Amino acid sequence: MQAIIPASRVENIRYAIREVVGLANEVKASGMDMCFLNIGDPNIFDFQPPKHMIEAVYKAMLENRNGYSPSPGIEEARAAVRRQAERSKIRNIRDILITQGASEAIELCLTGLLEPGQNVLLPQPGYPLYSSVLAKLNAEVNPYYLNEDDDWNLDIADIESRINEKTRAIVVINPNNPTGAIYPKETLMQIIELARRHNLILFSDEIYDKLVLDGIEYTSMASLCDDVPIVTFNGLSKSYVVPGFRIGWAIISGPAELLAHYIEGVNKMVRARLSANHPVQYAVKAALEGPQDHIPRMLAALKKRRDITVSMLNDMEEFHCVPPRGAFYAYPSLFIPDKDEDFVKDLIRETGVVTVHGSGFGQKPGTKHLRIVFLPDEKLLERAYGKIRNFVRKRYH
Question: What average pLDDT is seen over the chain?
Answer without folding.
Answer: 94
